[in-house]
Design a protein that fits this description.
The strands form 2 sheets. Strands 2, 3, 4, 5, 6 and 7 form a 6-stranded mixed beta sheet that branches. Strands 1-8 form a two-stranded antiparallel sheet. The chain has 4 helices and 8 strands, in the order E-H-E-E-E-E-E-H-E-E-H-H. The chain has 2 domains: 2-126, no CATH class; 138-178. By secondary structure, the protein is of the alpha+beta class. The chain starts with a strand and ends with a helix. Strand 4 and strand 5 (51-65) form a beta hairpin. It is elongated. The structure holds zinc ion (2 copies). One zinc ion binds next to loops.
Length: 178
Amino acid sequence: MFISLQQLEHRPVRFDVEVPAGEMEYDNKLKQISMLAAQGTAALLNHSVGEIRIQGTLSVTMQATCDRCLETTTFPIENQFDLLYMPAEATRGGEEEIHQAGIEVGYYEGNGLALQDVLREVVLLALPMQLVCNEACKGICPVCGQDRNQRDCGCQSETVDDRWSKLKSLRAEVSPHN
Ligand SMILES: [Zn+2]
Ligand SMILES: [Zn+2]
């Protein structure tokens, strides 16, 4: 669905869409594994400037591999969004103020924007910065490769590293006297 400025000049555009898994492209770490459903409105805020405000709700389940242990993990998203899009050619002077107000700002080129691009943005914004299966995920042991959530391998990597750095600083202290 394409939301054009022409349409918006007449009245706000309502949308109620369902996007099946596999239809939208994300970055290759992410996969949509459920129907994406979104409802909302797009409205022209300021006719002369061409600011488009898109508000609505979105629900979808995404899948990614955990950043720490590489297990496949699902991320259910239930999100209310409120985004502001400005024409790419407009001056970006007001951006800072808008950021402070807590509204995400995007840019569009030409005479409107594709709803799917907006929805992709909403999904990416709704995901946590770090994609982990669990906040407490212990990850994979850098020494033996064991998934430390399943079993504690007992490797002492941190302790060994610590001793080496202590030894190094000791050497640095000693060397001037040589
Ligand atoms: Zn994990
Ligand atoms: Zn280990």
